[in-house]
Amino acid sequence: MNAARIWVVDDDHGVRFVLATALREAGYAVEGFDSAQAALAALGNRQPPELLFTDVRMPGDDGLALLERLKSRHPELPVIVMSAYTDLASTAGAFRGGAHEFLSKPFDLDHAVALAARALPELPSSNASKESRSQAPASMQDDAPQLLGDSPRMQALFRAMGRVAAAPLNVLVTGETGTGKELVARALHRESPRANKPFIALNTAAIPAELLESELFGHEAGAFTGANKRHVGRFEQADGGTLFLDEIGDMPPALQTRLLRVLAEGEFFRVGGRELIRVDVRVIAATHQPLEALVADGRFRADLLHRLDVVRLRLPPLRERREDIPLLASRFLAAAAQKLHASAKRLSPAALERLQAYDWPGNVRELENLCWRLAALAPGATLGLHDLDEAAGPLASASVEGDAWEGALADWARAQLRDGAGDLHAQARSRLDRVLLQAALEHSDGHRGAAAEKLGVGRNTLTRKLGPGRKRR
Ligand SMILES: Nc1ncnc2c1ncn2[C@@H]1O[C@H](COP(=O)(O)OP(=O)(O)OP(=O)(O)O)[C@@H](O)[C@H]1O
């Protein structure tokens, strides 16, 4: 399958390099340009890309001028505008010029890659091999990332998805960040009779409130200062298909009212327009916030919640389905290896144990990112605790508590055995003693009696273990 082509236009070599590298790692074919002119010149003699990232402030023509020229020649080409100046004027200018998304600098690379994936037109299905139990229903399997999960919670979710996918009902997907809400929405769309119509996603929290209305419903030329062209909103773009509204809890109250009316009536006016637009759109909304609590606080309309919440799908956090971690990790490592043209790395039992002991506040996304980092950075074919320490900040320190120390011990023992050590048991015992004694002494401010009591050993034993040279208190 041909990789989607992405161009990155930025006069800053560093930004160009890191963004291009991250996008390449995600499997795209990327070209960089250091100015608007260079990109436009390339456009003259080459096929246009499928997606373009551009900076705003560059010597020569700026990114907004580039956007305008691109849009006049290739109106369908999605453009993501990046800028360190996130004032309303530049964001509004970018959106008015037809930008698909606005990315504030400095940005998170994972976020940029995710935006690219969303902005690219959906690719045609491939005949991916089919496995039944641990994936979403069979016909939901195509080129897109698959929802995986062997745990009873995920199996129940897959069954619920299978039941509601084809029904013409609005769906509310709830779950912490990174649990796969968007993946669920895409899968529901692909499994519905609307599959050949557009799937349009909009992250309510990512768009300035002032622009959200025209982003959703579009505007006519002259609707407000600077609106010099008609803009077709996401509702119209999604006609016949599915509109995914992410972070719905962040929608401003006035827009909630407007959305409610559109959902009830199926028709609306563009901002500044007189023509009544009728659309047939299935809305899938998602939130990581407890909407009932927002309703109780008066921050979310109860009637809108009822309209969206015809069917609710709850995504469990990863820490409540730790048994899925081995499957997910091995799939992510395999996918990364394929993209990196390398052979897949495996996790040592101790490393896997640590991954299963960790709480994953960023859920599956965090695990996926870690696997990509490990695939790209770790030197060996087997990933041990040392590789996790190198690759993962919070995970490394979180492992100090919990059961992961047994894993660390196991890794240490294997390394010693490999190096031919003969007195492992004595060595391990003396290190264990040292760590325990130090912790107990710190805890009891250096009082040996108290430390011995805490450890459940006699004072003499403690003194003997401490050996000579320790000051007594
Ligand atoms: N069950 C799963 N199986 C495989 N991949 C998954 C699963 N859940 C999530 N992912 C992957 O994790 C990443 C995050 O998923 P997604 O964007 O759908 O989460 P989200 O809940 O919508 O997050 P947010 O609330 O932050 O927008 C994606 O790359 C997705 O492919």
Automatic annotation (TrEMBL):
Single biological process term from Gene Ontology: regulation of nitrogen utilization
Q: Which GO terms describe its molecular function?
A: ATP binding; phosphorelay response regulator activity; sequence-specific DNA binding
A Pfam family matched in the record: HTH_8
List the GO terms this entry assigns under cellular component, sorted alphabetically. Answer: cytoplasm
Task: Name the Gene3D superfamilies on file.
Answer: 1.10.8.60, 3.40.50.2300, Homeodomain-like, P-loop containing nucleotide triphosphate hydrolases
Note down the stretches annotated as region Disordered: 124-148, 448-473
Instruction: Write out the annotated subcellular location.
Output: Cytoplasm
Domain (Response regulatory): residue spans on this chain:
5-120
Keywords assigned? Activator, ATP-binding, Cytoplasm, DNA-binding, Nitrogen fixation, Nucleotide-binding, Phosphoprotein, Repressor, Transcription, Transcription regulation, Two-component regulatory system
Location of 4-aspartylphosphate modifications = D55
Function, please?
Member of the two-component regulatory system NtrB/NtrC, which controls expression of the nitrogen-regulated (ntr) genes in response to nitrogen limitation. Phosphorylated NtrC binds directly to DNA and stimulates the formation of open promoter-sigma54-RNA polymerase complexes.
- UniProt-recorded name of the protein: DNA-binding transcriptional regulator NtrC
What is the gene called?
A: ntrC
